[in-house]
Design brief:
By secondary structure, the protein is of the alpha/beta class. The protein has two domains: 115 residues, 2-Layer Sandwich (Nucleotidyltransferase, domain 5), CATH 3.30.420.40; 59 residues, Nucleotidyltransferase, domain 5 (2-Layer Sandwich), CATH 3.30.420. 22% of the residues lie in helices and 37% in strands. It has a six-stranded mixed β-sheet with strand order 3-2-1-4-5-11. Strands 6, 7, 8, 9 and 10 form a five-stranded mixed β-sheet that branches. Helix 1 crosses helix 2. 38% of the residues are buried.
Length: 188
């Protein structure tokens, strides 16, 4: 059983492959190319590196937001194109803030913030206890000033030191929304 997790919600590609629940390959790449110029070649490279065929992938996790809307749309469109004939593939829509929260080793409460667009960003408060990540607020959108009005430590999706993140996909499986591949669309 092979799973592919991909996050292209920013100016990067973060990708992980799992076989039987075990991580077999991960990569994080920032490139000057656009996702449309880079993504198919990257997936092809990863499939060759892991000796995997596209039709062997049975589960797909895709970050669908919040983030750079065009980048997310390119990733989703590419995945739909690659897997459109597959009726048996399990597809999951993933929130970028949840994936960041899973990557944080902090215990207790903290806030995760997305990238600022039009002077606003999405954010969620989390609590981590005994290795389990829980949301303690709904997703909100606010200005940087509003987001910073907290005593909680703030982690941002733009921080590269928490990359690659897709390696943590199984830690937040309860947050992932199962969808049909054709219903995989950007969120927020």
């Amino acid at each position: 059983m092979i799973e592919l997790a991909i996050d292209g919600s920013g100016s990067f590609i973060d990708l992980s492959v799992f076989k039987d629940g075990n991580l077999t390959y991960t990569m994080f790449s920032k490139t000057l190319k656009t996702h449309s110029q880079f993504l198919v070649d990257t997936i092809d490279f990863v499939l060759k590196a892991t000796e995997t065929k596209l039709d062997e992938i049975y589960r797909l996790y895709c970050v669908a937001g919040p983030g750079r809307h065009t980048s997310i749309r390119v990733v989703i469109s590419t995945l739909k194109g690659l897997f459109f004939k597959r009726k048996d593939i399990e597809t999951f829509r993933v929130n970028a803030l949840d994936l960041l929260a899973a990557s944080i080793e902090e215990h207790g409460k903290f806030r995760c913030q997305g990238e600022l667009f039009s002077k606003k960003a999405y954010y969620i408060d989390y609590e981590k206890q005994n290795g389990e990540t829980k949301r303690v607020s709904d997703i909100k959108r606010g200005t940087e000033e509003e987001i910073n009005q907290t005593s909680l430590k703030i982690f941002k999706t733009t921080e590269e030191k928490y990359r690659p993140r897709t390696v943590n996909i199984h830690k937040i499986q309860n947050f992932c929304e199962r969808v049909n591949i054709f219903d995989l669309n950007p969120i927020y």
